[in-house]
UniProtKB/TrEMBL annotation:
Family membership: Belongs to the catalase family. HPII subfamily.
Reaction catalysis annotation: 2 H2O2 = O2 + 2 H2O
Protein's job: Decomposes hydrogen peroxide into water and oxygen; serves to protect cells from the toxic effects of hydrogen peroxide.
Keywords of this entry: Heme, Hydrogen peroxide, Iron, Metal-binding, Oxidoreductase, Peroxidase
Pfam families linked: Catalase, Catalase-rel, Catalase_C
First-level EC class: oxidoreductase
EC number: 1.11.1.6
Any one Gene Ontology molecular-function term assigned to this protein's record: catalase activity
Name of this chain's protein: Catalase
PROSITE patterns: CATALASE_1, CATALASE_2, CATALASE_3
Co-factor(s): heme
Length: 697
């Protein structure tokens, strides 16, 4: 028998059986996924008929021999994989991260440090609690997970749109999720925290108070994935070329600002457009309105105690206010392409906090340490085995030569005789890499202490930070927090749980506890609100800053007699701002003819207020009091949306009772469009908030 050929070490470590290198993750089509124009079996055999089974006679029994029938149905039977235990509902997109070079002094990771370096990414946004088919706009934390395909290996930054987490230690995660997921008896409610066991858990684990405040704030119901911040939550350790270390916390800041839905909008969307966020993201990318975020870091000295000005940097229920330590921008993320196939990309993408690259290390945060075990472990079940990093969306863009072999769904055809290191049989490769060769060499750090099941005393402060958060909100945001608690606790059956939550709130803010108690018809408990740091303006979403309108939606109420030239002019003006105009009329079809002709995109039957960021009424729009049109206008009024009307359109607004701040009228489009655009840049007409009844929002 001839000796086995020596492996060619210059060849890619893994090639498919067809010889196609496994580098297709950035979009090259893998011929095994889909190739040629002819229908085939999974085996590649051309199929003449996929609608009729092979039978013994036209009316006779079906034959087991029909391999196409068997394979077609059997594959279908196995099409579903387990959904994620949490974050099951999500939407993803491809993009690019570009470093600006300013992190060069603190990390050796080129993805963050090398000025102008472009790294491909795949980002997945998600809700936490709902099942895969649940509605996007449930009140919940949003996941913001980014896979950086760096040349040094894959780095996963698996964050949320809130900078703090429910719990301080990973060991509590199963309890938290058991309490937050639907009840084990009736399996309700779906995608909701408004139930007994959730509030039971968070009131018994008061470390959850800070996160609950964020969840009950407007952050729990984002307007769009494109308008959310993202946070790495934990402190990470960055290491530079000189092996000096700092601690950092990562933050994504959206270029479009941080904006939310109202609770009424969120609830309506759950019924009328459960895919609201998924659609918004895909539509914006398809329209070329590529969402962007700046990646920033707060940098802290890597001291022995890992505290900053009394704030424990290892406690994931705490933040360091940006006014104390500013966020420094180190790069930009741009999402530029929708997935080609939802399952292959968004469903099969698998993140792992344990995936880091040289220059990025962990801290002792007990939440992070537990996560580093959990993510790898969960993929073994969810994706069926240890080879999940070989799936196209998960494949590293760095060469892989890992001595790992076999396992379910092995897709590579590894070469060589010696899958162990060191070896002499395969020419001594693969061989370990030291620091100079880019090896992941951990910078030594001192650890000492007794083996205990305890946490540091600083972990016991559960109220000062939620108190700071609440104090930092504007009045309208505080009102929303009160309403959210009142709604959620109103759905709780056990009086004792409601009272316990009120007792917790009394340690945060007296008026918050009193207002929620009043809404529930319960006595306000006495408490002692915690001392806290000064309010942090960075925590409020109502800033007065004007943001771009990319991907914003505007309805123009029209009809057969509407001023079509005016609508065309409005569309042009909004296009220039990146916003999209949708014509809304009593019936479908086309309005007018010639160059000003307008296609009706929504009718009074198919449209709902939640779809639009502003509503305009055209001159000549019907003022027949259609109840659906009136409801849309009145909802938009309560939702604090800007309005405009020209010509007779203002009469339609009057008839629906729409007036006051943020309602712009004139005789032509030119008269109103500047004010409309300016008001939309503020997201909502906040001055109207006090004029609409609290019960409506
Ligand atoms: Fe987690 C998924 C974010 C704590 C265990 N988590 C998951 C996803 C995000 C987060 C965004 C979805 C990833 C995707 O889109 O596929 N998780 C967080 C954040 C945490 C956190 C920001 C705290 C700072 N997670 C956490 C703990 C544990 C887990 C403490 C377990 C001890 N998380 C999981 C998981 C998931 C997951 C069960 C489900 C699907 C998956 O991992 O891939 O392993």
């Amino acid at each position: 028998m001839p000796p086995a050929p020596k492996p060619d070490q210059s060849a890619p470590a893994q090639v498919s059986p067809t010889g196609v290198p496994f580098e297709a993750a950035d979009g090259d089509r893998d011929p095994r996924a889909q190739g040629g124009d002819v229908l085939t079996s999974p085996n590649g055999v051309r199929i003449p008929d996929t609608d009729h089974a092979l039978k013994a006679g036209r009316r006779g029994p079906t034959l087991l021999e029909d391999f196409h029938l068997r394979e077609k149905i059997s594959h279908f039977d196995h099409e579903r994989i387990p959904e994620r235990a949490v974050h099951a509902r999500g939407a993803g997109a491809h993009g690019v991260f570009t470093a600006n070079g300013s992190a060069a002094s603190i990390t050796r990771a080129p993805v963050l440090a090398e000025k102008g370096l472009e790294t491909p990414v795949f980002v997945r946004f998600s809700t936490v609690l709902g099942s895969r088919g649940s509605a996007d706009t449930a009140r919940d934390t949003r996941g913001f997970a980014t896979k950086f395909y760096t040349k040094e290996g894959t780095w996963d930054l698996v964050g949320n749109n809130m900078p703090v987490f429910f719990i301080q230690e990973a060991i509590k995660f199963p309890d938290l999720i058991h309490a937050a997921k639907p009840s084990p008896t009736r399996e309700i409610p779906q995608a909701q925290s408004a139930h007994d066991s959730f509030w039971d858990f968070v009131s018994l684990h008061t470390e959850a108070t800070h996160h609950s405040l964020w969840n009950m704030s407007d952050r729990g119901i984002p307007r769009s994935y494109r308008m959310m911040e993202g946070f790495g939550v934990h402190s990470f350790r960055l290491v530079n070329e000189a092996r000096e270390t700092v601690l950092v916390q990562f933050k994504w800041t959206p270029k479009l600002g941080v904006h939310s839905l109202t609770w009424e909008e969120a609830q309506l969307a759950m019924g009328t457009d459960p895919d609201f966020h998924r659609r918004d993201l895909a539509d914006a990318i398809e329209a070329g309105a590529f969402p962007e975020w700046e990646l920033g870091v707060q940098v802290f000295p890597d001291t022995d105690d890992q505290m900053y000005e009394g704030i424990d940097l290892l406690d994931s229920t705490k933040i360091v206010p940006e006014e104390m330590v500013p966020v420094q921008t180190i790069g930009t993320l741009r999402l530029t392409a929708n997935p080609t196939n939802y399952f292959a990309e968004t469903e099969q993408v698998a993140y792992n906090t344990g995936h880091v690259v040289p220059g990025i290390e962990f801290t002792n945060d007990p939440l992070l340490q537990g996560r580093n075990f959990s993510y790898q472990d969960t993929q073994l079940t969810r994706l069926g085995g240890p080879n999940w990093t070989q799936l196209p969306i998960n494949r590293p863009h760095a060469p892989v030569n890992d001595d790992q072999r076999d396992g379910f769904m092995q897709q590579g055809v590894p070469t060589g005789e010696a899958p162990y290191t060191p070896n002499s049989v395969d020419g001594g490769v693969p061989k370990p890499a030291d620091w100079a060769e880019g090896g992941y060499v951990v910078v030594p750090r001192k650890v000492e202490g007794e083996v205990v099941r305890e946490v540091a005393a600083s972990f016991e402060d559960h109220f000062s930070q939620p108190a700071m958060f609440y104090a930092s909100l504007s009045d309208v945001e505080k009102t929303h927090v009160v309403e959210a608690y009142t709604f959620e606790l109103g759905k709780v059956y056990e009086q004792a749980i409601k009272e316990r939550v009120l007792g917790v709130l009394a340690n945060v803010d007296t008026s918050l506890a009193e207002l929620v108690a009043e809404g529930l018809g319960l006595a306000a408990p006495s408490g002692s609100p915690a001392d806290h740091l000064p309010p942090s303006p960075a925590l409020s979403q109502v800033t007065g800053e004007a943001f771009p309108l990319d991907g914003r939606q505007v309805a123009v109420v029209a009809g057969p007699d509407a001023d079509l030239a005016g609508i065309a002019a409005l569309r042009e003006a909004l296009d220039a701002e990146g916003a999209q105009l949708k014509v809304l009329a009593p019936r479908g079809g086309v309005l007018g003819s010639g160059k000003d002709q307008q296609v009706v995109e929504r009718t009074n039957v198919t449209a709902r207020s939640i779809e639009f960021d502003a509503v305009v009424v055209a001159d000549g729009a019907p003022d027949d009091g259609d109840i659906k049109a009136t409801i849309l206008l009145q909802e938009a009024l309560r939702q604090l949306k800007p309005f405009a009307a020209w010509g007779s359109g203002s009469g339609v607004l009057d008839a629906a009772g729409v007036s006051g701040p943020g309602v712009f009228t004139g005789s032509s489009v030119d008269d109103v469009v500047t004010d409309l655009v300016a008001a939309m840049g503020q997201h909502r007409v906040w001055e109207r908030a006090e004029l609409v009844t609290a019960s409506a929002v």
